[in-house]
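Q: Structure tokens for this one, please.
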Amino acid sequence: MSVVIPVYNEAAFLGDALDKLYRELEGVDATVDVILAENGSTDGTAELGRRLAEQYPRLRVLELPEPDYGGAMREGFLIATGDWVVSSDIDYFSGSFMSRVVAAAAEADVVLASKRDPESDDRRSLVRRLATWAFNKVLRFVLGSKVSDTHGIKALRREVIEDVATDVISRQDLFDTELVIRAERRGWRIRELPIVVEEQRLAKSKLLSRVPRTLMGVWRIRRALRS
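A: Here is the predicted structure, written as tokens:
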């Protein structure tokens, strides 16, 4: 199993975050390698990542020249070697989710940690919960998706990535959303699991500033899926 984590200007947060991540991995009954997909950082994140790779087992750093969250995720997915590839943010990780992926491996090809599952415990602010709800409504109306949450921790079989990753046109915020939508449309088995969501820090980008970019991105996905 591989874990891909895009990182950008995370030098002040990276050490503590990796320590917590590896403690979570101790409870996962699988051999796990971790890929830090560093993209265009200017604060020494790449250098720190290389030093930490000497301390933590099966940790490697992918260095990309430009800040691009989605591009970093895409390149990390493509170099990952695990039978399952998990995507996560550096401040949002769950070892228990990975253990449930292992348990669900026989009956799913994509496993999503859904913040909107009725059994999930979403401790974020009301504004951010409403934003997730609204985004899902947009995906259902514009793209016809039936999944409840595309933008969180997720795990995909290696075969799914090989099938759809190179067709994804989205970068920045919507790479993983388009990846899930394409997998859904091609008939891969998708299972959603509840998750506990508790923010470890304030979001690095303003929610409202992302709305126009996100809506335009969803429309570009619609056009691409019709071509």
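A few notes: The chain has one domain: 2-226. The domain at 2-226 is CATH 3.90.550.10 (Spore Coat Polysaccharide Biosynthesis Protein SpsA; Chain A).
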